[in-house]
Amino acid sequence: MSAPAQPDRLFEAVLVANRGEIARRVIRTLRRLGIRSVAVYSDADAGAPHVREADVAVRIGPAAASASYLDIDAVIAAARESGAGAVHPGYGFLSENVAFARACADAGIVFIGPGERALEIMGDKIRAKDHVAAHEVPTVPGFSAIGMTDGEIAAAAEGAGFPLLLKPSAGGGGKGMQVVRSAAELPDALATARRVAAAAFGDDALLLERLIERPRHIEVQVLADQHGHVVHLGERECTLQRRHQKVIEEAPSPVVDAATRERLGRAACAAAASVDYRGAGTVEFLVAADRPEEFFFIEMNTRLQVEHPVTELVARIGTDESVDLVEQQLRIAAGHELGFTQEDVQLDGHAIEARVYAETPERGFLPAAGEVLAWRAASEARTDSAVEAGSVVTSDYDPMIAKVIAHAPDREGALTRLDAALADTVLLGVESNIAFLRALLADPAVRAGDLDTGLIDRLPPFAAPAPSERALAAAASVVTSAHREHSSPSRATWALGESTRPVHSGAVWSALVGWRPGAEAVRPQCTFETDAGALLSAAVPGGIGAVVSTGSSRSHAREIGRAMPAGTVTAADTEGAVWVHADGATHRLRPLSRREAMRRRLAARGRATATTHPELRAPMPGAVVAVHVADGTAVAAGERIVTIEAMKMEHPVLAPHDGVVRVDVSPGEQVRRDQVLAHVAPPAQGPGDSDPADRSHADTAHEASVPTSRP
Known about the structure:
alpha+beta; eight-stranded antiparallel sheet; 29% strand; globular
């Protein structure tokens, strides 16, 4: 059994060298233990929840992570300034940086993580693989490309046999990984992987290894103290990934039996012991889908994992004591023994976690940004969130907004509870993947536990659910509320909680069919455009007389809530669009006047017969990392023209048709969403052909977005 926490024997103050949901997660445990918490923040995070929740907050630099959260000197200075005796790095940023651990030691500050030897060995995939293989941990066959020419790599690849998985040696999170199925694909894959590795990790060394078809990704949570004790807390199934990024995780794995669990745990503990590990860590394995008893070491993550809550919800010490992995990290870093043995660890029930990202699945999962107008976590599950109402999601950092975690006695119950929790999670103002997560949980293969890491990538393109009648009615009520309460559309506002937000409603002033200023009110209708371009109409429930009168912000919000259809939450953004949460789904609906609606319909008819537009626009805000062609180059449809980086991912923008390109941006340039990046003039046309560039539609601003661009 774990001894009760004794704060006086731990640390007086701990600096949390991170942001978002993990910073808030660590601060919660520090508060429970009576330890003073110190937050750090960049200019972009000055108003972030973790800054307010900490006992002390220290600014460490501008928005760019390289000048703030990755600035070792700034973080050490903040620890000294605040009197923190220890630093918890969370995950990402400096959590696995050996130079940071060394700087902490030099400053007399405890690094809450493993020692330098573990960081150095496990921080390099090639070295880690060679090291654990010598300690009887099974590894995937492959070779290191360090010091090899491209010709030597090609020869070694032929000898190893295709398909191969090419990945940066110093990296993680799937960044830079390339699947190579033939020798012809190897040169381009090497160039891409090296570029991403150099940009993300400052090291372009590569590792090539056998690609295991239909693999499952299984990882084992370990804890190790300074006294030679190493235990594991069971495994997690992290197979549901998109482009090597985990999406849904669960514990325990549905295919790991007790005997395999014991073998996996023993191998994980051996890997940790081989580097004198201390603290919490995760050893990751690949398991063949058709042979789950066979597993291979991938890497060891020398930090807390994003998915650690599923282990906390199922792991028990003794009969009923749950595990707080952050508390265990603190105790180990302070020199305490674990206080329990492997025999004390029990697994109770099943837990599943879904990662909620600011992204747009129907546009190829492109990152999203914006202000959170409304946020409400589900009551029936654990939610670790990075945001609250009023938070601003930018493209400066990882797009994860929250983790929603459900626990039940069995897997079926956990799946059902997680779906219900996602349906009840309210996030307005920023596009997210919640609808996609719910669709994924309903997939028959997922329900059956028949998983492999390519399952998500094989799914058809995601289509957002259509708004329900309740959602449309709620949006229509928002529009008519603004008109009823204000004499001028420029002064229209929509109350939300204790704040009001402007609704630029010049268009919606004339959107109510059958209603005119000074005329008798009849049952009005509103027309809305979805982000997918669909036009939908809705009648206002009860007519315009159902709209409430103005009042103070708090009472006004309650009255409007009564006027809304039951179970809905609404908000309006600064562009005049209405956000609605209803029937377990969220929609952004732009009110249209009758004239605008007619223009949209005519434009849609024109697009049905027209060729593609010559303009290539940025699918999201970000930085131009590569321009692949020069002005005047003849290109083919689908050829890569520009690559944009946003939120740690690269997104290619492709030529929509054959033609001659004109590039309008340069590498390193910051671009806005929908900014024109290049033009591809179509081939010369014969007499009588129309030039798509001469189309006179009033609403072509978004026609040239590149929805086929994917991260």
